[in-house]
Amino acid sequence: MQEQIFLNGSFVSRTDAKVSIMDRGFLFGDGVYELIPVYNGKPFLLDKHLSRLNKSLTLIEMKNNLSDDLEIEKIVNEVIHKNKFKDHFIYIQITRGTHTDRQHVYQSVIEPTVLVMGQFSKAYTADEIKKGFRATIHEDYRWRRANIKSISLLGNVLLKNHAAKKGMYETILIHNDKVTEGSASNIFIVNNNVVYTPKLGNELLSGVTRSLILDLLKKNKYLVEESDVTKEQVMSADEIWCSSSTSPIAPITEIDGKVIKEGTAGTVTLETHKLVTEFIGKF
Ligand code: PDD
């Protein structure tokens, strides 16, 4: 059976799904999205993702609680069950919908375009995690509303490819000498056994994985601080990792040619990876 996706009220096969060229998502990148891991057939922390989706929709002046009105939770579960997804992720995209003309100003009443689909996701092996990944640093030139999970991802795409072209995993972004986040992840560093991550604001996404990690670390009596993290602190850190729904803990063991400590994932990184893996296992 062809994979079934949800588009504007119906289930269709992925190849048959079509969206108008007048959709504001296509013309302006005018929409928001969520990416939700599916572990063993269950959407992970779905409530947290849907509450962030509602927040993004509110921030782009679409209707409050639109994701509830659209019954996104029910649709996500249907997509998982229809396709018997086990280890996948679910991608939700809601755009402001279709206008008759291309115009920046949006009408107040407009039918959103709603897409829910899945994709297979392969977790990193224990060896890959231990070895870690390489990263590069770049100025964060994206717009200053990175707290909105907007589908306008050109900045993130260019910055991720900046790393990929060098065979690296991630680009760590710096604005005003402070780390904001990665091009597709949040950033954590460890110094003298204290875990630091940039505090939330308009410059970075409030990652669902970030918040899970902070909770688990605090519950397990680690010292954690949400504070400014400078470029210098990153370069002299004992340990660094990136967090995201696609790879909860991705250790960084080299930045722009500088090897971090022993050049393999550090102790706190591996302990955090274990805490998250156990949490997912119990989920
Ligand atoms: N992105 N910051 C950015 C810019 C991101 O794109 C992501 C994840 C995160 C981490 O958020 P979370 O833990 O909620 O996944 C932070 C997803 C995976 C993506 O766009 O593919």
How many domains in all? 2
As a whole number of angstroms, the C-alpha radius of gyration is 19 Å
Oligomer: single chain
Strand content: 25-35%
Distance between the termini: 29 Å
Structure commentary:
The protein has 283 residues and is α+β, with helices and mostly antiparallel strands. It folds into two domains: 4-120, 2-Layer Sandwich (D-amino Acid Aminotransferase, Chain A, domain 1); 126-282, Alpha-Beta Barrel (D-amino Acid Aminotransferase, Chain A, domain 2), CATH 3.20.10. 30% of the residues lie in helices and 28% in strands. The protein has nine helices and 15 strands. Strands 7, 8, 9, 10, 11, 12, 13, 14 and 15 form a nine-stranded mixed sheet that branches. Strands 2-1-6-5-3-4 form a six-stranded antiparallel sheet. A hairpin with a 2-residue loop joins strand 14 (250-255) and strand 15. It is globular. The model has no long low-confidence stretch (mean pLDDT 96). Bound molecules: N-(5'-phosphopyridoxyl)-D-alanine. N-(5'-phosphopyridoxyl)-D-alanine binds at residues 35, 156, 181, 184-186, 205, 207-210, 243-246.
Defining traits:
alpha+beta, six-stranded antiparallel beta sheet, D-amino Acid Aminotransferase, Chain A, domain 2, nine-stranded mixed beta sheet, 15 strands, binds N-(5'-phosphopyridoxyl)-D-alanine, D-amino Acid Aminotransferase, Chain A, domain 1, 283 residues
